[in-house]
Amino acid sequence: MVIEAILIMFIGLGGGLAVGSGFVAFLTVLGIAPRMTQLTKTEKSIRVYEGAIIIGAQVGTWASFYSFSLHLPSLLLIPIGLASGMFIGMLAAALTEVLNVFPLLAKRVGVTDKIILLMMAIVLGKMIGSLIQWIYL
């Protein structure tokens, strides 16, 4: 029983270290925060972006340990959801800009002249999938 608990603790610690290392590598090697500041033309606020990412990761980690509810009014959840979605979208846009995902994908598929349609299809697909998950699941 004690050995099983110790084993679970080591597995959890190892998993946390692996995910944390991957997150740090993602942010530093790819230069996500600097690219986000370039896209939004807010280079002077890079420390704010970095601090927000670090604090968000810490708060999210600690929040995952506890079960709690904020009991907010439904109308207040709309701007919170919009802000969260915009942040995730900006992060994804910065990542695709860094990696040049869309031009490579369009070249491989052979639709370089329809890259705007490809991007809109991906965006609409993600949006419809999210709505289906939130409404029905």
Automatic annotation (TrEMBL):
Identify the species of origin. Answer: Alkalihalophilus sp. As8PL
The record's Pfam families line, in alphabetical order, gives: SpoVAB
Q: Which UniProt keywords apply?
A: Membrane, Transmembrane, Transmembrane helix
Q: Which residue ranges traverse the bilayer?
A: 6-34, 46-68, 74-95, 115-136
Q: Which InterPro entries match?
A: SpoVAB
Tell me what this protein is called.
Stage V sporulation protein AB
Per the record's keyword annotation, is Glycoprotein included, yes or no? no
Organism classification, top ranks? Bacteria, Bacillati, Bacillota, Bacilli, Bacillales
The superkingdom of the source organism is Bacteria
